Amino acid sequence: MGLPRFLSFRAFVTCPLQDAQALSREHTANACSRPIGSCSVDRNCELDDTFHIASTLQGSFKSCQLSHAYMVEYGLMDDTYLLNLILRAYGKSGAMLDAHAVFNSMRRPNIISWNTLLGAYAFYDQSDEVESLFNSMRQRNIVSWNTLITAYSHQGKCRNALYLFQRLFEECELPNDVTFINILTACSKLAELQTGRVIHVRIHMCGLDMNVTVGTALVHMYAKCRDLDFACNAFYQLPERDVVSWTSLISAQAQLGSADLAICSYEQMQQEGVLSTKFTIESILTVAAKKLSLNQGKALHACICFGCSKPDVNTGNSLINMYAKCGSMRYAWFIFECLQSDATIVWNTMISACVEELYYLQALSLYNQMLQRGLCPDEFTFASVLSVCAFLLSFDIGMMVHSQLLEEGHMQDLVLSNTLITFYSKCKAFDEAKFVFKKMQVHNVVTWTSMMAAYAQTGLYEQVFTLFSEMQLQQVRPNDFTVITLLVACADSIALERGRELHAWIALERNGCFSKVSNGIINMYAKCGAVEDAFSFFNHLGCMDNAIPWNAMLNGLAYRGHGRATFAFFKRMLKEGTEPDEWTYVALLSACSHSGMVEEGIYFFNSLVCNSYSLLVLQHCICLVDLFGRVGQVLLAISYFCRIPFLPDVCSWSALEAMCRAHRHCVWEILATEHILEFDRQ
Prior knowledge:
It comes from Ceratopteris richardii. PPR repeats lie at residues 110-144, 242-276, 343-377, 444-478, 546-580, 581-615. Keywords: Repeat. InterPro entries: PPR_At4g14850-like_plant, PPR_rpt, TPR-like_helical_dom_sf. GO terms for molecular function: RNA binding. The protein is elongated, with a radius of gyration of 36 Å. The longest helix is centred in the first third of the chain and has 16 residues, at 17-32. Helix 17 packs parallel to helix 19 and helix 21 packs antiparallel against helix 22 (360-372). The model is unreliable at 1-49 (pLDDT under 50). With 682 residues, it is mainly α. It has 40 helices and no strands.
């Protein structure tokens, strides 16, 4: 005996799931006692229930279960339309076992049923099930193909997506805009320009190159393939351009270094009356931070915020970054205070801005405020604070940050562990640096290089080379900083033969390309006393239009006390048209100091002050003080030290203290020591 359908679906879903069957039995019993004619409302009730079941399936997982139970109870399991809705609802809720059970129970699954289950598996990244289901489909439509291509693209299986796209054409299926958008995403991730151009041709053949969404995807693809000309062509061929396409173009121009074009595009977008989104604003502010002057930045700010009383967190964050990069920490602080935000990203941006602009104490103050307000610093916060501690040699604060990292479980973060090693090595806390290194489960090239630098700073040069050998055994490829660290270790330990071996290894590994490590090689040879080798390598480099390699050669000669050779090389530098910088004069004054050439030292210093005063730095003054001290003119050195037009740093006081101790000038030795201790207390 079939169940009469008198129970309203609305009544069914308002009760708890466990009471639904009891309620249906009660209504069934009541229905059996009614006159037969009263069943005439049943057909209308079926249509009404179908409508309400369909509506309920848009709701929660519990509503889906109730709907499914009602359909089972009242024999609606032959309704493919409703079963597809149940299937989709289970799929959206992640109940894949339930979804599969519903699919298997369907007597007549249609193409929508197959695609719905396929889409559910794809959404939850179950790629094996997606492939198996797709291959078992007897009938497919473009939705089926799109579902699998989308799944591959989003899961990073871009080669699979391209293969499937080719297979689609072989099976004579016509792609649509969704197909091309997703295959362009795959092509973008692979950054394969030629493949992208082939897809562009097929888009044109299908008549979809005028589609705004497809055109925007083309712009994005060409940007990722670093072809700005094609990106611009694809954009300007669009019959109409929305804010998404404009944002893609501006982002492309920004990413590929065409800041002027990005700003012009933004202005053109505004002239065409297209309203910016937060993504557009963030893109243009990123460009502005790299390119604009402060006044241009202010004008852009006014243009962006016209009609807005207060920027949102993301826009405000970008404005802080822009003003800091434009050199106005004052306006950056103003935006930060206006935001009144507890978002960690905003605090991170402000702390990072302070670090970049050398406002180290303000950065530490912001970090302290974060803790007082109960905000949670993240790995970016900790990295910035540790870099400040490394610069200020703030060992106690750095130790406190290390404790927080341990408490909050951040020690598995590779970047933070590397930063900790650098911090401890700067503070000469070698044991702590070694402890962090040994506790790390993974070592990358930065880790190895940081640890080598720590060994080098403490004079443990043999350990530097041992660590390099271990690094090679681990098959970690050294970078430029690794090579420079090794060259410095060779130079400081006067290990000429080891330096020559390293030079030969660099030549072999880099096919004779020395562009970024050439200064280190020159410095190594010069400091090891192999001046002829240094000259030979310098001449091998060819024409040089910047002062850096010249300075390396000058420093090497100065370090070995070759004063006359240093001056002769400086004349050659001027003759070949290379403009000296502040470090050139540091090398010259250092040569005078090491060679005891007082008159020449005074000459070069006066020449610097009279002709290139803008280049004057503290190191020039300390070199002159050191020169006077080396020739025994201590009172003249102290007198000049007192008239230095810069605030002496800890290195300056240390140099003065060493000079006074050597010449037994007790009063100034004590005074210098007190200043050094004051720096330590800070």
